[in-house]
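Weekly sync, protein design subgroup
Attendees: M.S., D.O., the rotation student, P.L. (late)

Item 1: inverse folding check
M.S. brought a backbone from last month's batch and wanted to see whether the design step gives back something sensible before we order anything. D.O. pointed out we never logged the input encoding, so this time it goes straight into the notes. Structure tokens as presented (186 positions):
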């Protein structure tokens, strides 16, 4: 197994700050904008974005929630064993608000499609935008594109992009994992 570090510590922090400033540029004081982290992996990035935005905007209260998409996925019945859902933590209505969906890696687009379906249980937003740390841009199964991109990666479907966070006991890091090619038979 080959591992290549795409982003780590300082580079991730700089990327998150850049994304925050892009959000401020488009949403000003966040009076009508909410952040929604997609569970399970997008919540770590959403927490960091939320924390940095409130620090940059001098403790302005920005609404943030976490959205579970387990039963909205098109593949949840295909998995062996019981499916365990996470809990939603959205204590506000999104009706008429601008929503920024946040996830760590955009790959096929299926997670985002499920999130859009799940989001409607909380009202009809004025607008939905997508922010991702990593965009695996040549792997889409659905026509979904992010509005805010931390880093783009051209990868094969056989490769995996793994994001780890200091807040979950690891370190801030994005790794591209590849299986070594099979040896050629003579």
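Designed sequence read out in the meeting:
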């Amino acid at each position: 197994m080959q591992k290549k570090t795409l982003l780590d510590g300082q580079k991730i922090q700089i990327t998150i700050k850049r994304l925050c400033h892009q959000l401020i540029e488009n949403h000003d004081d966040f009076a009508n904008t909410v952040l929604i982290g997609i569970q399970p992996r997008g919540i770590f990035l959403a927490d960091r974005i939320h924390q940095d935005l409130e620090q940059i905007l001098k403790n302005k209260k920005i609404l943030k929630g976490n959205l579970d998409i387990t039963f909205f996925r098109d593949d949840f019945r295909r998995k062996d064993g019981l499916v365990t859902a996470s809990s939603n933590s959205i204590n506000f209505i999104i009706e008429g608000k601008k929503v920024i969906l946040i996830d760590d890696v955009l790959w096929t687009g299926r997670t985002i499609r499920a999130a859009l379906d799940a989001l409607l249980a909380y009202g009809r937003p004025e607008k939905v935008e997508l922010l991702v740390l990593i965009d695996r841009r040549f792997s889409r199964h659905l026509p979904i594109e992010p509005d805010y991109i931390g880093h783009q990666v051209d990868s094969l479907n056989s490769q995996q992009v793994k994001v780890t966070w200091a807040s979950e006991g690891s370190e801030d890091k994005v790794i591209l994992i590849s299986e070594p090619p099979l040896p050629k038979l003579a």
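Discussion: The CA atoms of residues 75 and 81 lie 13 Å apart. The domain at 10-155 is CATH 3.40.50.2020 (Rossmann fold).
Action: P.L. to compare against the previous round before Friday.
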